[in-house]
Task: inverse folding
């Protein structure tokens, strides 16, 4: 990779890791907020804080994370990636600083909304930057993906470790610092955003190829209609199901684990020589299980990526979601056996959960025209992180008004729907191949 490639990949990878660090540290805070806040005061009225309440609050932030990706993709074509990445980083830093000052759930909500809006522009900005500015594009995307996976796993782990030493408000403020520093770097880094793009369009029109994008709402509507008129609509439904399952299982996972055998808090004074026995600091095993499950997901993404080279995405998606349905139904029975069996089960669960991503990304490439590929992936992030964010609210409502068994049964049903949709795509493809052979 040349110097320009390294500068771009370095910035994009750093920002990608931070986006997912903040995204997946939030569920760790959720288990604390359930104990910290008793009521939500809004418009002169008071509401009791339950898992359903927090589910809605977290869903609002996560929804903006996904919804903003679509307009973010349009804006990046107009303003360039560097500016949007800087806005993303400074916005996330401001959001977590605000979170650290929160004394009420209203302020927590505002902070999460700010984080969601700021983080939403990253994926279209970062992916566009690599695709247009990096000559060794494949290598650039590989490093970018690795950085995101490290943020997914190490971010929650760092958050859990910091919570051993500080209260949650201080930890939120500490987490704000790296994003602010990275934002300054984004403003100062030197690179050519369009170094890998030919200066002039191949059609001879004289229009610079770096200058693209949707020029009007009418063009956006027509292009979107064409995109969804066909099998891509089924792929989009699969992506939404993935998002619902992902948010549904992860949002309250640390809180769910805290009440299971083997996850009782351990006084830090019993583990650290010299620490006063009166210290109220505790080690919470569920936070480390959660972080470990996410770290194992790195291997799952690798396996899923390799599967796309050997089997059709439809078969892989059907197999992964069929497995996720079984794992959802088995989660609570295995958890009742104790922490050792659950550790083994959690490794399998985490790997399978993240194996779905490269498979459905490959399906998007198969079922969308090359000319609308960017818009297609914009819809993917809208479906996964936007519509899929409702999984958090769904989980909170089920845990409040039913129980954990009902939640995992519902998640199993969502996975079955995704597996069935993948099977529909597979049969459609096989039918088309048969018709082509006969012709």
Result:
């Amino acid at each position: 990779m040349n110097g320009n490639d390294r500068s771009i990949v370095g910035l994009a990878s750093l920002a990608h890791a931070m986006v997912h660090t903040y995204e997946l540290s939030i569920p760790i805070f959720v288990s604390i907020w359930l104990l910290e806040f008793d009521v939500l005061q809004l418009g002169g009225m008071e509401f009791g804080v339950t898992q359903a309440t927090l589910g809605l609050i977290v869903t609002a932030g996560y929804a903006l994370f996904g919804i903003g990706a679509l307009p973010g993709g349009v804006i990046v074509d107009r303003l360039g990636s560097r500016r949007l990445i800087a806005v993303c980083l400074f916005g996330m830093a401001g959001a977590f600083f605000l979170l650290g000052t929160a004394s009420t759930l209203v302020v927590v909500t505002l902070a999460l909304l700010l984080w969601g809006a700021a983080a939403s522009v990253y994926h279209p900005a970062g992916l566009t930057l690599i695709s247009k500015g990096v000559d060794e594009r494949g290598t650039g995307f590989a490093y970018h993906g690795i950085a995101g996976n490290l943020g997914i796993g190490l971010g929650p782990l760092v958050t859990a470790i910091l919570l051993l030493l500080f209260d949650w408000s201080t930890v939120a403020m500490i987490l704000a610092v790296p994003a602010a520093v990275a934002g300054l770097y984004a403003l100062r880094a030197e690179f050519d955003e369009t170094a890998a793009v030919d200066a002039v369009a191949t059609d001879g029109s004289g229009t610079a190829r770096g200058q693209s994008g949707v020029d009007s709402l009418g063009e956006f509507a027509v292009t979107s209609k064409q995109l969804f008129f066909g099998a891509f609509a089924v792929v989009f439904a699969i992506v939404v199901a993935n998002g619902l399952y992902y948010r549904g299982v992860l949002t309250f996972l640390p809180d769910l684990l805290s009440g299971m055998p083997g996850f009782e808090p351990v006084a830090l004074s019993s583990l650290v020589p010299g620490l006063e026995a009166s210290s109220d600091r505790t080690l919470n095993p569920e936070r480390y299980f959660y972080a470990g499950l996410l770290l194992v997901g790195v291997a799952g993404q690798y396996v899923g990526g390799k599967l796309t080279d050997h089997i059709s995405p439809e078969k892989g998606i059907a197999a992964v979601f069929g497995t996720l349905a079984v794992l959802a139904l088995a989660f609570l029975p295995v958890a009742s056996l104790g922490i050792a069996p659950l550790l083994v089960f959690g490794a399998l669960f985490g790997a399978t959960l993240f194996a779905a991503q490269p498979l459905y990304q490959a399906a998007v490439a198969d079922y969308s025209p090359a000319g609308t590929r960017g818009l297609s992936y914009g819809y993917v992030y809208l479906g996964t992180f936007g519509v899929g964010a409702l999984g958090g609210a769904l989980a909170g409502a089920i845990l409040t008004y039913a129980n954990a068994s009902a939640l995992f049964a519902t998640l199993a049903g969502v996975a079955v729907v995704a597996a069935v949709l993948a099977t529909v795509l597979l049969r459609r493809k096989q039918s088309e191949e048969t018709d082509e052979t006969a012709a």
The longest strand covers residues 39-42. DSSP finds 17 helices and four strands in the chain.
